[in-house]
Amino acid sequence: MTTTATEPARPAAAAYSTRRQWAVLAVVLAVEIMDLLDATIINVAAPTIRTDLGASFTAVQWFAAGYTLAFAVMLITGGRLGDLVGRRLMFVLGAAGFTLTSVLCAFAQSPEMLITTRVLQGAFGAVMIPQGFGVIKEVFPPERLSAAFGVFGPVIGLAAVCGPIVAGTLIDADLFGTGWRMIFLINLPLGLLAVFGALRFMPATRPAPGERLDVPGTLLMVAAAVLLIYPLVQGRDLGWPLWVFALMVAAVPVLAAFVAYERRRSGSPLIELALFGRRAFTAGLVVITVFFGGLVGLMLVFGLYLQVGLGYTPLHAGLTFAPWAFGIAVGSALAGIWLANRYGRRTVHGGLIITAAGLGWLALSIRAGGAGVSTLDMLPALLVCGVGCGLALAPLFSVILNGVQDHEVGSASGVLNAMQQFGGAAGVAALGTIFFSLLGHTGNFSTVIQWLLLITAGLMAATFALAYALPRQVRPEG
Description:
By secondary structure, this protein is mainly alpha-helical.
């Protein structure tokens, strides 16, 4: 969710029929599913795409990082655009752009074209996604909001479980000779449903008075992100020349310039800088970055290990991912229904311990099985990893938001979501680089993935320690 400003008066939520309210929810869920699928299916599809397009391993990193990086740097701006010109308009433009760029991804003829279209896809996703939450809050009365948002968990959980399996099935089925391209073409019916459903059911909103787009702030934020991520991904291929490290160092003064500019800006800052004076929030940003960086980066290299290292088919790889995704759904449900409200931060800590233990168990399972390790050998550890991730993830944002003021929740939510995406891009860049570097030295997939699993377990341990700076309980309204 991202920050929204106070808007002119509009019809009360009670003025919308129940049928229209749930139709709007279905439209928003359609784009949420599209975003979730396109953020994760690359873990299964990357090896096939690499072979078909003749891509390098560095390009494979960009297939994933390009999407999440563009989504991260555009997310807060996307929410602000909804305030400036109306949420329905930006939702329709975002969904139409996302659908079009999905088709362009499907017809990519080179790694460079696919990377470019993935970046555009992520940017349109960042315009589309934040509008949905605001529209739901407009059309549902307060007493029914919890029921509306309660649908998100099961639907998105089901999409997470089915996503890798669907990707593997579509690639192996090779429908109409499309191969991996069908994983992007599947967005076409969902995207059209979202566009026409929004035009039919979403209420039109007027721009908020006094809102302005912070173009210089956005450009500075984009520059800082690119200066950090680009050299992390490209450095290995280029032999780590000195200028690569200079770019990473340059990200610091650019970020400082962004902060200085935002402090001087009067009205409608891109980010409320007062948030960074709150220990819980700044600690939460670090926790989010390390947690998602470790897990998202690991998912990409684990998919490569399964298909390139073990020779699994895309469908076999997708089915191997399923216990992890199912475990996340189970862990999230346990935390959301019972544990989070009662134990707060301790639920996060417990989930991190379980995740780290599961990663260690998975490393031992791979070591014992060697080149012949099977999905069945890895299944228990994958399930444990997923349950731990779900337990930690479900209350994490609410725990962090318990450390900010009520009027800061919107802005804080937007920044946390953007940092989640940025952490994923950084994790793909960093862990992908480590994975390919170790592979170049050893040539042994089994040994390398064991090291990556242990490194990720170490990141979970670091997250465990950092989480002590977070509030003890979830935010009262959840």
